[in-house]
């Protein structure tokens, strides 16, 4: 899959820039921040943000004091990210990182595994991340859950449309999500797959965090996100449930974290 012409065309519409900055997408952003701020080494550690898009995570990481380099295969994303204060941005492929061995403290893959349909490519990207981090450094990857398409189409009211319903159920079978009419394709992981891929890349004992839990599916989620007090309560609630194995598949996205042990 990688960056196919259809995926490239989708991202070149500049729809990614605001996805996590508005609406219920903010819940994914804030939960990602919540987990990473607990797991990352203190600043000024060096973070390689692979597939970092227009810099939505690089921006807050840089503001927190991290030294951030962003890599992305979409020229529009690189150009936008290069405007973020304190962030270096350039073109790059997760499977062939243009950095020396053991040169960073953290590698973030908060998107690349979505577009690698072949398991060998995903393991290669994780192995490259392992190569790039120093001993003791962290590799963090985001994945889309296998069940997210069914949940999302029901939430949005699109499940009544046969093409979208069929696409969501096809993804349940093989993980390949072909979104009708959007030009967007993605690989959706079963949660149990991800630690196995980490282990095959030399990253054992991976820990998993469900980002959104069931809260992304409640009808008034944006009202909760707009209210700082209720948002704090919702963050506290999901933090208490984030690593319960039986609940991992409810989230739209997972974060998986492992440490290079040599």
UniProtKB/TrEMBL annotation:
Transferase recorded as keyword: yes
Pfam families: Methyltransf_11
GO molecular function, one term: S-adenosylmethionine-dependent methyltransferase activity
Top-level taxon of origin: Bacteria
UniProt KW Ribonucleoprotein keyword: no
Residue intervals of the Methyltransferase type domain: 48-140
Keywords, ordered alphabetically: Methyltransferase, Transferase, Ubiquinone
Any one biological process term the GO annotation gives: methylation
Stated name of the protein: Ubiquinone/menaquinone biosynthesis C-methylase UbiE
Record lineage: Bacteria, Bacillati, Actinomycetota, Actinomycetes, Streptosporangiales
């Amino acid at each position: 899959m990688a960056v196919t012409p259809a995926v490239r065309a989708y991202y070149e519409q500049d729809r990614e820039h605001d996805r996590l900055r508005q609406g219920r997408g903010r819940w994914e952003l804030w939960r990602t921040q919540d987990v990473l701020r607990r797991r990352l080494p203190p600043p000024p550690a060096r973070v390689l943000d692979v597939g970092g898009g227009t810099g939505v995570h690089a921006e807050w990481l840089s503001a927190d004091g991290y030294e951030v380099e962003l890599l992305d295969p979409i020229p529009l994303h690189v150009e936008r990210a290069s405007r973020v204060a304190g962030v270096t941005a350039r073109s790059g492929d997760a499977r062939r990182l243009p950095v020396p061995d053991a040169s960073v403290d953290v590698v973030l893959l908060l998107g690349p595994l979505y577009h690698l349909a072949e398991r060998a490519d995903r393991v290669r990207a994780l192995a490259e991340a392992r190569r790039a981090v120093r001993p003791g450094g962290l590799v963090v990857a985001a994945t889309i859950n296998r069940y997210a398409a069914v949940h999302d189409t029901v939430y949005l009211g699109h499940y009544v449309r046969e093409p979208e319903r069929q696409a969501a159920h096809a993804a349940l079978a093989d993980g390949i999500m072909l979104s009708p009419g959007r030009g967007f394709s993605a690989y959706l992981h079963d949660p149990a797959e991800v630690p196995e891929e980490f282990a095959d890349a030399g990253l054992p004992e991976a820990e998993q965090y469900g980002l959104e839990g069931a809260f992304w599916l409640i009808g008034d989620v944006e009202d909760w996100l707009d209210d700082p007090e209720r948002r704090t309560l919702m963050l506290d609630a999901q933090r208490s449930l984030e690593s319960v194995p039986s609940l991992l598949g409810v989230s739209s996205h997972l974060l998986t974290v492992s440490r290079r042990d040599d």
